[in-house]
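This week, think about what follows.
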Amino acid sequence: MAPIPIPTDSPEVLATDTGFSLWLFDTQFFLPLVMSSAITIAVWRWRFPCMTIKYLDTIVEGIRSLIRIDAQAAHHVDLDLLDVLPNMKAVKDNFQRLQSKLSILKRDGYEHEPRHTHLCSWLSFHCHQLIEIDELYWGFRDIKMKILAAIERERRQQ
């Protein structure tokens, strides 16, 4: 039996080809996968703007540099803006509490992190740490905003 010749000279025949197309398969399955992955990553980063302890350390250093008073102006007395500005005792106590929680989180991360071979416990540990990091991030952000508001209030009163 001889093969049936397929006419390929007519555009109508080419347009009605219903054979399997690898490009169509890629488009139908991989494009939605890539799009949903990109959206998931964007939402994840929006929900958790801080995901590492190292970034929390930079936030704490930023707050410390914000409240640091020049040593020459303070006559070598260990003071910061939280001691000078009025009504900042609660903010200072909260800042110290969050710093101690951060050091506990660091210690627990170094001492209690499970091995990578135990995937479920490792994922559980890091999810718990991410929740703690997120709580500390928003706490430090709140403290920074209160300090900036107090500085602005003092500038307006002068």
